[in-house]
Amino acid sequence: MKKYNFLAVILLGITLVGCGDKNKAENSLFNIDDSAFPAHFTQKEALTIGILNPKSKEIDSVAYFINDQRVGSTKGAKEFRFELVDQKLGYQHLKATVYFGGDSSDATKRIEVVSDVQPKALKFKIVNTFAHDKKAFTEGLEFYKDTLYESTGQEGASFIKKYDYKTGKVYKQIDLDQQYFGEGITFLNDKLFQLTYKNKKGFIYNAKTLKLEKTFDYEKDIEGWGMTNDGKYIYQTDGTEKIWKVDPSTQKMIDYINVYSGESKIKAVNEIEWINGKIYANVWFKDAIAVVNPESGAVEGILDLSSLRKEMTDITKDDVLNGIAYNPKTKTIFVTGKNWSKMFEITVSE
Q1: Which Gene Ontology molecular-function terms are recorded (predicted)?
Q2: Where would you tag: which of 51, 76, 128, 230 has the fewest CB atoms within 10 A of its CB?
């Protein structure tokens, strides 16, 4: 087994997924010839598309599309070659519009583009251990101006608190209305942004006072999970393999990446943190963090934190790892979990 597949098992316990529609015929007149397609493509490969013409129609030309974007055309039924270097990881939808005798017909196919990056196995060292509120169902964890903030979930028990992680002293706490299940948070432009789980609403607070300034609705029919930012854009997760890129001024989703470790799609991406140009991501119910390239979605490193459970005797398997906060002042990472009695300050290396 390749090393990255072994690491993906740590991260996911996944099974590999193929294209899924290899022999499916979408069209009675023409079909995309996938007989030479591999199970997966990578971004370093080129895709050569041919047309099957079982009824021997006289083809005038063919226009080719990937994810509804026109990428080229050919005269007659000549094969078309397309480089995949700029395509997202994940499923790509191919379409060939075939023109013949004054008419046209579409043929479609789906391929999967996977990562060719071999993730590095990362290691960590515990620098400090602090007490953590065991009643806190942790969803988001982030430093703002050297102070730690934490958001929690569960209807009737969701709050955001600003506190001293060394002593546990709470400086300020904002309780959400009982109808809301709080999720991830992030600070940007002196605003505190917060998601909710299935309520499809988010909140924007004044970062200094924690006074609520705006409520917004999700643009898409998704769940709210984790949140972070790169200083310009917000990134948020929805419980799938997607990480959405969001305009903080409008809350509009402007792009996304799909997270892959090798050939494996990483589902249930949860709490995320922007650290030195990479996205550190919890995976739901896994005691591991994936280090994700924010441009491609490729997992470049995997940090196995399962040994942290040995540091506590009062948690169960349902008390999952959740909460990543980078302290730029100390250049250390703080991690904890839902209903964990401890929070750990760690350093990470290869």
Answers
A1: glutaminyl-peptide cyclotransferase activity
A2: 76
Report the CATH number at residue 135. Answer: 2.130.10.10
- The residue among 60, 88, 114 that closes a domain is 114
If one counts the domains in the chain, the total is 2
Cα radius of gyration (the chain): 23
In order along its 350 residues, the chain shows pLDDT tens digits of: 344 455 556 665 543 333 444 444 455 799 999 999 999 999 999 999 999 999 999 999 999 999 999 999 999 989 999 999 888 899 999 999 999 999 999 999 999 999 999 999 999 999 999 999 999 999 999 999 999 999 999 999 999 999 999 999 999 999 999 999 999 999 999 999 999 999 999 999 999 999 999 999 999 999 999 999 999 999 999 999 999 999 999 999 999 999 999 999 999 999 999 999 999 999 999 999 999 999 999 999 999 999 999 999 999 989 999 999 999 999 999 999 999 999 999 999 98
**In 10 A of CB 48, how many CB atoms?**
12
**Same domain as 264, residue 151:** yes
Token pair in block for residue 50: 């041919």
> In angstroms, what CA-CA distances link 327 with 128, 132, 144, 275?
13, 17, 9, 9
**Residue with the two structure tokens 């200094």:** 208
Structural domain for 131, as ranges? 120-349
